Amino acid sequence: MAARLNIHTIAMWLLPALFLAVYLAPLLGVFGWSVSRPEPGAENYVRMLTDADALNIMLRTARVCILVTLTSVLLAYLLAYHWVFGSPARKLFMELCIFIPFWISVLIRAFGWVVILRNKGILNETLLSIGAIAEPLTLVRTEFSVILGMVHFLVPFAVFPIASVMRQIDSRVLLASRGMGASPGFTFWNVFLPLTVPGILASVIIVFVFALGFFITPAILGGGKIVMIAEYIYIQMFQTSNWGFGAALSIGVLAVVAAMAGLLFKVIRPERLVK
Amino acid sequence: MNNFQRDCCELLAERFRGGKLDRRGFLTGLVALGAATVAAPGARAAGQELVVVNWGGDAIDAYSAAFAEAYEAATGNKLKIDGSGPLEGSMKTQFESNSVRWDVCDAEPYSAIRLGREGMMEKIDYSIVDRSKIEPGFDGEFYVPSYFYSNVIAYDAARFGDDVPSTWADFWNVEKYPGKRTLYKWMTGVLEAALLADGVAPAELYPLDVDRALAKIEALKPHIVSFWSSGAESQQLLRDGEASMGLLWHTRANLTKQDTEGEVDWTFDQGLVSPSGWTVIKGNPAGAKAAMEFIALAQNPDNQVTLLNELGNGPANPAAHALVSEEMKPVDASSKENLERQIVLQAEWYADHYGTALDKYLALVSS
């Protein structure tokens, strides 16, 4: 019996076909480059795992991403708690705090931090004028300012999964814990926190994956010295025309992201987060 | 990436918006930069299109597109401006994917040489382009200088008083000239500066001893506040006193001098000078001949002097220097007197070694 090609079947296959055409095919092309340029073989991957310079950049990327993720998720947890459980006035305030930065471009935010943190910036001038410091502090063009700028950008993204999970907690469970004599602290650490773990994990993965791809913020706030993997790939592709190595690095980053996405699906059910 | 060529268009736009430049000056500047252009006379049929790619950015695109329409109306020839920037990787992509969209690129000479050797660029047709209108020694096989710029020492004159730095050895001397330094992130000129500071004679610079240069840079690294990657950033570092000395493009150095009313000054002494190059990708849509005609048109000394007046870019046509005003002579990077004080960057060396050296340099920068 021949399959009937009706509108329903077409609609069902449209998305996978699109996925194949615009995503998988080019991706295979990138993989192809990574094992064929400049010569066929796994040379680019060997270089990626043995070249001290490349390893340094990957280590730095990992360090920055981990610090950014921990800080962002911690801040997001506090924000989400106030957003979900606060009074109506506080909820509104939290919403403003979460949404307004969300709408400001990443470039403007990075330059904003430069204006605040530089030697003759607002912060240093204030500290100097009240006599708290004698010499301006070096705040901008350091790893610190890069992490600050990235956390500022990523906190709102971390808030949503956590807040979503917090909203779904049955308040009667907490009441039961309190009713049986547990202190508020005990209830938080042993009942509330474990219930929010899926949200925390989702936030961790989302923030980490985002942070891996950061380019502009480190470039502006790092004084050129904080080269992360995304910029490194860009350099291989556009500056030094080293396409094979750039492709291998891209595949490496993709593998990390894929592994984390796999973890996301395995440990938590993503559909819970969009309720 | 924000290289010198892109910076020129940003400068023009800033000046235009700031009211320092009238429409006419802005327009002529764009023409000289290739951001806008008149169609070459006669040779081509009306309605044909020539795409010139430079480093314009969004703002410039909007302005120049408006002017382009006026040109189109006047000449009958279509002009398209593409400000997306002819990075080496982008030019290579267009050639390899058989979809060349650019007729003339304002690119790094070493990119033109490197891609030229791989058979991707047109050889310059010197029956159309006039060799005598090029600074001697710069008539490249795959590029023609569009203008000259220099990597110079800019310094905090207010801080250093009468005893001002004039060599790269001074630049490295943080005891005599205290304060932070800033260098260019994309390396052009930086290795040469380090080697000169380390005592290598200008005539013996090439081939560059990369490891020696990197060691010298590493020694200075604790004093480097930033490796700048845009002209505006380099200017801000000097103007705000975050750096007391920097390797800057002479155009930005001069602008900082004007902005600070001389508190920041600069010198052509030991400046590392280089042309930017017109270059043509093989298989360009309007054909090689039309592209070469555009390049020949851009050799016009008047346009080149306008570019010097508006931006400080040194003319590529030696005949243009005679037309330079007394006021602008100290800024003219390619005049005979100023060239004698500087050292020419060797594009051939960059064509062979830029990729590997940049990898090592960036590893040091980011360590």
Helices and strands, with pairings:
The complex is a heterodimer of chains A (275) and B (367).
Chain A: H1 7-36, H2 43-50, H3 52-85, H4 88-102, H5 106-117, H6 122-129, H7 143-168, H8 171-179, H9 184-212, H10 216-221, H11 229-239, H12 243-267, H13 270-273
Helix pairs in contact in A: 1-12, 2-12, 3-4, 3-7, 3-9, 4-7, 5-7, 7-9, 8-9, 9-12, 11-12
Chain B: H1 4-17, H2 23-33, E1 49-53, H3 57-75, E2 78-82, H4 88-96, E3 104-107, H5 109-117, E4 144-156, H6 157-160, H7 168-172, E5 181-184, H8 190-197, H9 210-220, E6 224-228, H10 231-239, E7 245-249, H11 250-259, E8 264-279, H12 288-297, H13 301-311, H14 336-341, E9 343-344, H15 347-365
Parallel strand pairs in B: 1-2, 1-3, 5-6, 5-7, 8-9
Antiparallel strand pairs in B: 3-8, 4-7, 4-8
Textual characterization of the structure:
The complex is a heterodimer of chains A (275) and B (367). With 275 residues, chain A is mostly helical. Chain A is 79% helix and 0% strand. Chain A has a domain at 56-163 and 195-273: MetI-like fold. Chain A has helices at 7-36, 43-50, 52-85, 88-102, 106-117, 122-129, 143-168, 171-179, 184-212, 216-221, 229-239, 243-267, 270-273. In chain A, helix 2 (43-50) packs across helix 12. Chain A is globular. The mean pLDDT of chain A is 89. With 367 residues, chain B is an alpha/beta fold. Chain B folds into 2 domains: 4-148 and 275-335, Periplasmic binding protein-like II (D-Maltodextrin-Binding Protein, domain 2), CATH 3.40.190; 149-273 and 345-365, Periplasmic binding protein-like II (D-Maltodextrin-Binding Protein, domain 2). Chain B has 15 helices and 9 strands. The longest helix of chain B has 19 residues, at 57-75. Chain B is globular, with a radius of gyration of 20 Å. The two termini of chain B are 20 Å apart. The interface between A and B is medium-sized, with 25 and 28 residues.
At CATH level 2, the architecture of the largest domain in chain B is: 3-Layer(aba) Sandwich
CATH topology of the domain at 56-163 and 195-273 in chain A: the name is MetI-like fold
Shape by Cα distribution of chain A: globular
Whole-angstrom Rg of chain B = 20 Å
